[in-house]
Amino acid sequence: MVKVYTIASGKGGTGKTTVTANLGPMLARYGKRTCILDADVGMANLGLILGLEDLPVTLHEVLAGKARVRDAIYDGPFGVKVVPCGLSLQGFQQSNPDRLKDVMTDLVSEFDILILDAPAGISRDGVIPLTIADGVILVINPEISSIVDALKTKILTETVGGHIEGAIINRVAGSGDEFNRAQMEKLLGVRVLGVIPEDANVRRASAGRSPIVAKYPSSDASRAFKRISADIVGIEYIEEQTPVPREGFVDRLARVLFRAKA
Ligand SMILES: Nc1ncnc2c1ncn2[C@@H]1O[C@H](COP(=O)(O)OP(=O)(O)OP(=O)(O)O)[C@@H](O)[C@H]1O
Ligand SMILES: [Mg+2]
């Protein structure tokens, strides 16, 4: 049975696209047939941070009724499939968000997990992804405006008959003025699925057109993404060992000589 998640927030810039671009590859790596779709049809950038742009067919053409979704599926890291949007304003104007549900129906037989990267705000193209998901995952930063906007998105989701799966707290810097996990659970009334630290490698990875889990797999944020992905798949996350550098010739010789002297 396919599971459809929508990554939403309310407030812009909380990390929805980053979460989509990292959970997708990890879920694929953990054995789930996974497809991530850019449902932010106006301000699309999922393809951009994965190095997929200038493509002949995207979700724009599919939502405009000019192409089939199977022609808009591209390969991403670790075997994840990606349905990006184009970057043109014209492509956005021609796309009809009501077609998204049919697009999902076309994909259900081929995948175990579908993830929709939703736009910020509560516009029409933002509401549709909330209604067609089995579970909405809220991406929240540990500060008041992000929490209030997430609460609005939660209420909106429930009003339109959707279901909130939980929340991911992103960009946690550990400073004293931040809301903590328990406070956020209490304020929002949702389960926190995981906490992603502030990590400069996120931006560095995007600049390199790759998700952090592929580019810097042992960074703090990558470990958090792996833990959340493992939880979703229902497997135990085992922290990877930091590789021990192999002993060079001089070190080995020194060790042998030192032992001989002792
Ligand atoms: N954990 C993190 N540590 C550091 N930077 C991060 C982290 N998560 C996201 N960012 C940065 O924050 C910015 C916004 O992230 P992103 O584009 O994923 O947000 P968004 O919610 O999709 O935004 P929008 O609402 O515009 O679609 C990006 O520059 C990204 O690199
Ligand atoms: Mg985004």
Task: Please explain how this structure is put together.
It is a single chain. The protein is of the alpha/beta class and 262 residues long. It has one domain (3-261): P-loop containing nucleotide triphosphate hydrolases (Rossmann fold, 3-Layer(aba) Sandwich). Helices cover 42% and strands 16% of the residues. The protein has an eight-stranded mixed beta sheet, sandwiched between helices. Helix 1 packs across helix 11 (220-233). It starts with a strand and ends with a helix. The site of magnesium ion (MG) has 5 residues, from helix 1.
Bound molecules: adenosine-5'-triphosphate, magnesium ion
CATH class call: Alpha Beta
What percent of the residues sit in helical stretches (DSSP H or I)? 40-55%
Strand order of the largest sheet: 3-4-2-5-1-6-7-8
Please compute the radius of gyration using only Cα atoms. 21 Å
The low-confidence runs, each spanning 5 or more residues with pLDDT under 50, are none
The quaternary structure here is single chain
Number of domains: 1
Short description:
This protein has 262 residues and is α/β, with parallel strands linked by helices. It contains twelve helices and eight strands. The protein has a single domain (3-261), classed as P-loop containing nucleotide triphosphate hydrolases (Rossmann fold, 3-Layer(aba) Sandwich).
Write the layout of secondary structure elements.
Elements: E1 3-8, H1 16-29, E2 34-38, H2 46-49, H3 59-63, E3 74-75, E4 81-83, H4 89-94, H5 100-107, E5 113-117, H6 124-132, E6 135-140, H7 144-159, E7 164-172, H8 181-188, E8 192-197, H9 200-207, H10 212-215, H11 220-233, H12 249-261
Helix pairs in contact: 1-11
Bound molecules: adenosine-5'-triphosphate and magnesium ion.
Adenosine-5'-triphosphate is lined by residues 9, 12-18, 40, 43, 120, 170-171, 196, 198-199, 202-203, 206, 221.
